[in-house]
Design a protein that fits this description.
single chain, about 240 residues, mainly beta, L,D-transpeptidase catalytic domain-like, ten-stranded mixed beta sheet, two-stranded antiparallel ribbon, 12 strands, peptidoglycan synthesis, glycosyltransferase, cell wall biogenesis/degradation, LD_TPept_cat_dom
Amino acid sequence: MIRPILTLTLALLMGACAAVPYAEPPVAEAPAEPPLPPDILARYRALQDGDEIIPAVPLENLSARNVRQEVDYWTDHPPGTIIVDPHDRFLYLVEPGNRALRYGVAVGEAGFQFTGEARIPYQRDWPRWTPTPNMIANRPDYAEYAGGVPGGIDNPLGARALYLHRDGRDTLYRIHGTPQPWTVGTAVSSGCIRLYNQDIIDLAARVRSGTRVVVLGPDERGLGTVPPEATRNTGVLD
């Protein structure tokens, strides 16, 4: 079971999380695995959200590992809790009966700097992104975005952003969408926790103000993915 997490390293020192704006995708390669079922592919088709049209996720950027799916998950945390496993690059929304809805995520540098518990007091649709002074100091090319990037299909925060607070303070840690679907399932150079835009819209619709979030540390990688009795004798996961 997930033990209490006692440490929290704020992303304040790193600056607010965001993907690299307008990064180019890698050269696409044909998928190496069997095609996904039509009902799974339908979750990632193009859709209209307000005034924005979200493109379908390209087939080469989808995999059975990263698509949204229900899985077995063993935890003491109550249904409705979000558990982020940045080192396994998954996000779990806990459901009753040792089940969870699992989302593949991309994890940026700031995403590895935060562990512990927080709450989501609010979320934003098509949020505006503004680099912090620290981000501009580290990346002078971000200076052109100092006035902020309006919400929209090319915004680094994607279609939704869930804002994490602790003790009434904004941690600057975000769970958000991305216009870069090829990054999902990978560790990337910047940002916090990114989901496909189709998935962050789905997750945001399930989240209420006050939702509790637990971010696992590196020694907790994979925690909850096997029954407790399977690890009782070893004490750790491989």
